[in-house]
Design goal:
The chain has about 325 residues and is α+β, with helices and mostly antiparallel strands. It has seven helices and 14 strands. Keywords: Isomerase, Rotamase.
Length: about 325
């Protein structure tokens, strides 16, 4: 997680090493540092801001959220002050200090938030949540209808997603070069590196495979794993989940095409890295913590193969 925080902070491109020492104090215990004031009009109630944002708490290794993981900005709605629960120095107040091209760091006082809202204090921090914000675009409400305004936002995001699409091949190539990998490549675009060879037959359609895995973005951000220790280290642990090898029937259970193809290349006991382009992954929609057009990295171990019937037709949903 430390490595991820450093990477994401560098990606913001706006945070000087000494910036945390330059906070000014505002209403409601809010602390702020305007790193860059581009001189543009500041956001008003009813406006929308497209922002890049990293949220951390005042605890060690406490990355809570980052738009850089997804590669898409977040839309922030500037609410009217008349809405119940809002107060001077709250989350909404931060963004009214910003306009297009601005960047800033805010420290939101959670003790004040609990006192003003009557809600329990969040457990993810001791006193402060820190927001590192850069405004990409300011959508001004003015006299626009809601439908007209959100049509603008829709067109904006179509362009952002197209940028992700065009960048995918380069992201994967950079990951391979940075990690000095020499993968094999299949006709589908799947690339793979066998790190430990197993023995025996490879799974066929209809067989059930038993797999350990960790899935990450090429940025290094882990979005899923069945390894409890890894999940705890990366702050993605879910106490309601059973951390055990995943089982699925090849060609029948609905997993991404990259898995259906990749695991058939491995013998029992093999450990490998699968580099999965979005065309055989989660495609243009993404899913959960996976952005649209995201190349994925899966470290997998094929623990076991349970032979299945060979005459059953494959489920057409298996590659979705």
């Amino acid at each position: 997680m430390k490595k991820s925080i450093l990477f994401l902070s560098a990606a913001v491109g706006l945070l000087a090493a000494t910036s945390c020492q330059n906070f000014k104090k505002g209403d409601g215990g809010l602390e702020y540092n305007i790193v860059k004031d581009a001189g543009a009009e500041k956001a008003q109630p009813g406006d929308l801001l497209s922002v890049d944002m990293i949220v951390t708490s005042d605890r060690k290794d406490s990355l809570l959220q980052s738009t850089y993981d997804i590669g898409l900005p977040q839309i922030v709605n500037i609410a009217p002050d008349s809405i119940p629960g809002l107060y001077a120095g709250d989350y909404n107040s931060m963004f009214k200090m910003l306009g297009e091209g601005d960047s800033a760091i805010f420290r939101l006082n959670l003790d004040t938030m609990a006192a003003k809202t009557g809600q329990p204090k969040p457990e993810f921090a001791d006193k402060f949540a820190t927001f590192k914000v850069k405004v990409r675009k300011h959508f001004k409400k003015g006299d626009l209808t809601d439908s007209a305004m959100y049509a603008q936002v829709d067109e904006y995001f179509k362009a952002e997603i197209e940028t992700l699409k065009q960048a995918e091949e380069g992201k994967l190539a950079n990951y391979i070069a940075k990690n000095k990998l020499d993968p094999k490549k299949t006709d589908s675009g799947l690339q793979y590196i066998v790190k430990e060879e197993g023995s025996g037959n490879k799974p066929a359609l209809g067989d059930t495979v038993v797999v350990n895995y960790t899935g990450s973005l090429v940025s290094g951000t882990i979005f899923d794993t069945n390894d409890a220790d890894v999940a705890k280290k990366e702050n993605v642990f879910n106490p309601m989940r059973q951390y055990e090898p995943i089982r699925f029937r090849v060609g029948h259970d609905p997993v991404i095409q990259g898995w259906t193809e990749g695991l058939q290349l491995l013998s029992k006991g093999s450990k490998a890295t699968l580099l999965v382009p979005s065309s055989i992954g989660y495609g243009e929609r993404g899913g959960g913590k996976i952005p649209p057009y995201a190349p994925l990295v899966f470290d997998v171990e094929l623990v076991d193969i349970v032979p299945g019937p060979t005459d059953a037709p494959a489920d057409s949903t298996a590659a979705n």
